[in-house]
Design goal:
Helix 4 runs antiparallel to helix 5. Helix content is about 40%, strand content about 30%. The protein contains seven helices and eleven strands. The chain has one domain (about 25-195): 3-Layer(bba) Sandwich (Chalcone isomerase). The protein is α+β, with helices and mostly antiparallel strands and about 200 residues long. The radius of gyration is 20 Å and the shape is globular.
């Protein structure tokens, strides 16, 4: 058997010793509001491509970048809800936001888009999210939170990539989507961007 030259042998050993995360190529990104947004993500081992991403603005003030990941390309809330497998909504702060104010904004967005019966079904999750943001007090520029819809588990909430809570309600992730993709979204241009429109 032919032996490898010393230099080639060293390279091969280094490659074997390197962690898989180092060997694997990082997902390409797109620039959204100055934030590099990966075009792919993995949720419980499943690849979920970027459906769309955009900037949430309040007048001239840019507040955060939101990105939606789904198993297949969708162009409506109905298609998003019907898409199989896990889903992810990731929010990256562009400015400091008070935790209580963020929680109140999400609750208001649900009330604007859901019936009282639907709001009641989501209420335990809403209260947990509100409590979570109230405890956090504020999200600073560069910080983030992520909502992962995991079949059979519910919605896993992460703050700065650290697991913060699991909301077991099957309806909760859909309620959160209504805030951004409902008939009266918090930001119409952001809704269009999350559904694959122009960023």
């Amino acid at each position: 058997m032919r032996l490898l030259a010393p230099s080639l042998l060293a390279i091969a050993l280094l490659a074997l010793a390197a962690p898989s995360a180092v060997r694997a190529q990082a997902s390409p990104t797109v620039d959204v509001g100055g934030v590099p947004v990966p075009v792919d993500n993995f949720v419980v081992g499943h690849r979920v491509p970027l459906n769309g991403a955009g900037v949430r603005a309040d007048g001239d003030t840019k507040m955060y970048v939101a990105a939606l990941y789904i198993s297949r390309k969708t162009r409506s809330l109905v298609e998003v809800a019907g898409a199989p497998g896990p889903k992810r909504l990731h929010v990256h702060m562009l400015r400091e936001i008070d935790g209580k104010a963020l929680g109140a904004s999400l609750s208001q967005g649900m009330n604007s888009n859901l019936s009282s019966r639907e709001v009641s079904a989501c209420l335990p999750g809403v209260l947990k999210m509100t409590e979570l943001f109230a405890t956090k007090k504020k999200l600073n520029t560069g910080e983030s939170f992520t909502l992962d819809s995991v079949p059979g588990q519910g919605t896993v909430v992460r703050v700065n990539n650290e697991k913060a809570a699991t909301i077991e309600s099957r309806e909760f992730f859909g309620c959160m989507l209504q805030v951004y993709l409902g008939e009266r979204p918090v930001d119409a241009p952001l809704k269009a961007a999350l559904l694959g429109g122009k960023r």
